[in-house]
Design goal:
This protein has 20 helices and no strands. The chain is an all-alpha fold.
């Protein structure tokens, strides 16, 4: 009897693993850094390009929207075609978009180019996690994902600090070029260090209908949410038309996904309790994560009058909390194989953190703000990477790409919608608070008259250039308005606690996805071999019995 031996590779040392994923880590760092490095300079960019508060939000939202829509597409492609080429393509696309963004001449051009950036980021965010899953087992993955999460936290929260320094020294356009050398290094590392198994499927089937319907549905939804109440009334024909188009496109997308051969979002994934509950938790975490990175810069610069550099320095407590929790908890998860208690603790800290953020005011002592940021950062650091980890641990290897990317997809889309809604709420709140603050104000100089005209235009103000009397009113308005925006994140954070509490506490596997795929292939070969042997034995027996009868 012939046996098929396992070809399991010799266990890699941590150094070998880090060498293999070095290009992925650098690529991820560049993608996240280039997105966050402009956050502290965004008030300066929008003011320099003559943009409004609504356009400010859309510069952020355009990139997040493109990331959200493209993430599941990249994930599905990873199950069908060469993953290494996909990683390199997404990184190259992102780099080109970033360079063009540095030459933007107006806000609309910047918004358009941020879409290109977002498509590249969508690929990197999903493909890096998929590649890590193919190389490292879930049990060992915790410590490496913790490092990846820590690097993401460093880029997410440290980017604003670097961006502030660069803006003050060389101007905001330099922020878009600083990541290019790192992107080139990442491309070289990917070429020589990343070796991934090819997908099992040979025939490639792309869900084009799903791609179009998803893009139309999500885009229309965001346009409706962000512009309703300001560009048109909620009960107007425009509002009703946009809402109807968004609902119809999303419903059609869900219907199509049940019937196409290779759906972007396989509906069968939602039969998996771990996946479904992780998606719900990701929605809540996504809103808190993106809202913090977007609105903290505005709070420090527009509510506290900080420079971009000062604004970046003020986010250090957030860096320490998120990066420290991500790395330390990742190590503990790998060592002991226990994840649920840490994730529940993280979701509770996230809820406390966003609640504290909703209490901010322009004159809140910075020491108190630092504690708020640290608590929120620690909560996010404990939960973010582990959500992807537990989904990968409870998903068949053949659906690894779709499952991993869809957790990221729902987190990003929720963050995008959340930021859009919070931005619209912020714009309305700030206008109301400024109007109330100026109701009893009488300008006493030409400088104050000119400042009032600028505020009336709706453009984002340069707070440092405002007269003192008006400046206090504007800072108070932004401080109160940003706190009000965080109220939206509180019930969602509570939802994360509930979702994580009901996730099945499944032990982490000690085999990586590539090994699981190889075992499945070997089992299939054994089954086929046994079937062939059984068939031939049966045929001999039949022939023999017929001969004896004669």
């Amino acid at each position: 009897m012939t046996t098929i031996s396992s070809s399991a590779e010799t266990a890699r040392s941590p150094r070998e693993v880090f060498t293999a994923i070095s290009g992925l880590i650098v690529g991820m760092f560049v993608a996240v850094l280039s997105g966050t490095i402009v956050s502290t300079s965004m008030p300066v960019i929008i003011a320099d390009l003559g943009g409004t508060q609504s356009q400010y939000t859309w510069v952020i939202t355009a990139s997040l929207l493109a990331t959200a829509v493209s993430t599941p597409i990249w994930g599905k492609l990873a199950d069908l075609v060469d993953r290494k080429i996909l990683v390199q393509l997404s990184l190259a696309l992102f780099t080109v978009g970033t360079v063009i963004a540095g030459f933007s001449t107006d806000t609309n051009m910047l918004i358009a180019v941020r879409v290109v950036q977002g498509i590249g980021v969508g690929g990197l965010m999903s493909l890096v996690m998929i590649a890590v899953a193919l190389i490292i087992s879930p049990r060992e993955r915790g410590k490496y994902m913790g490092v990846v999460g820590g690097i993401m936290a460093l880029a997410t929260i440290g980017g604003p600090l670097l961006g502030g320094v660069i803006t003050d020294l060389w101007g905001w356009r330099a922020n878009f070029f600083v990541g290019v050398p790192f992107a080139l290094i990442a491309l070289v590392l990917l070429q020589f260090t990343l070796h991934l198994p090819g997908p099992q499927r040979v025939e490639v089937s792309i869900d084009y209908a799903g791609i179009v319907l998803l893009a139309v549905g999500v885009s229309t939804l965001l346009i409706w949410v962000s512009m309703g109440g300001s560009q048109f009334e909620w009960d107007s024909s425009t509002s009703i038309t946009l809402a109807a188009i968004a609902a119809a496109a999303i419903a059609a997308f869900i219907a199509v996904e049940f019937f196409v051969k290779e759906p972007i979002v396989p509906m069968s994934l939602f039969r998996n309790r771990t996946f479904t509950l992780s998606v719900l938790a990701s929605i809540a975490i996504g809103v808190s994560m993106f809202a913090t990175s977007v609105f903290l810069a505005q709070y420090f610069q527009l509510a506290r009058g900080a420079t971009p550099t000062e604004s970046g320095l003020m986010t250090i407590p957030m860096i320490v909390g998120q990066m420290g929790a991500s790395i330390i908890i990742g190590q503990l998860v790998s060592r002991f194989g226990k994840w649920k208690g840490w994730m529940l603790t993280g979701s509770v800290l996230t809820t406390i953190g966003v609640t504290l953020m909703a209490m901010l005011r322009y004159d809140t002592p910075f020491a108190v703000v630092a504690v708020y940021m640290f608590v929120l950062g620690a909560g996010l650091g404990m939960v973010m990477q582990n959500l992807t980890l537990i989904v990968q641990n409870d998903t068949p290897p053949t659906q690894l790409g779709a499952a991993s990317s869809n957790v990221n997809f729902f987190r990003t889309i929720a963050g995008t919608i959340g930021v859009t809604v919070m931005g619209a709420m912020l714009s309305t709140s700030v206008s109301g608070y400024i109007k109330d603050g100026l109701s009893a104000f009488t300008p006493s100089s030409a400088e104050e008259v000119e400042a009032l005209k600028h505020l009336a235009s709706g453009n984002v103000p340069k707070v440092g250039e405002l007269p003192d009397a008006i400046r206090v009113i504007v800072e108070s308005a932004y401080g109160h308005g940003i706190a009000d925006a965080f109220i939206i994140a509180i019930p969602l954070a509570v939802l994360a606690i509930v979702a994580i509490a009901f996730i099945k506490n499944k032990p982490l596997s000690t085999k990586n996805a590539a090994e699981q795929l190889r075992e499945q292939a070997e089992e299939s070969m054994i089954d086929v071999a046994e079937a062939e042997v059984g068939a031939s034995t049966g045929a001999v027996r039949v022939v023999g019995s017929e001969a004896s009868k004669r």
